[in-house]
Design goal:
By secondary structure, this protein is α+β, with helices and mostly antiparallel strands. Helices cover 29% and strands 38% of the residues. The longest helix is centred in the first third of the chain and has 14 residues.
Length: 85
């Protein structure tokens, strides 16, 4: 069995973390994604995707620990940017 290595994505912040988290929480509810968050760090799980995030200055650092095998890392990055944009 192939074990997935976590992949890290750095997403530049375009909005204040509180605004970003409110949008992400709403999107999570609409898409049945488990999302536990605060303005420092949090985690998410749903639709075969699992990971955590933390704010570092003007960057959001997202670590993805699990993804569906048919989803490419490029698709994951695009989804994360939509989710946290």
């Amino acid at each position: 069995m192939h074990k997935l290595m976590a992949r890290i994505f750095q997403i530049p912040l375009k909005e204040h973390p509180e605004i970003l988290l409110n949008k992400a929480a709403r999107m999570a509810r609409e898409n049945a994604v488990h999302f536990v968050a605060d303005q420092v760090e949090g985690h998410f799980a749903g639709k075969g995707l699992e990971g955590s995030y933390r704010f570092e200055g003007d960057m959001l650092v997202v670590s993805v620990s699990r993804k569906p095998p048919f989803v490419t890392w490029g698709m994951v990055e695009k989804m994360l940017k939509q989710f946290f944009a």
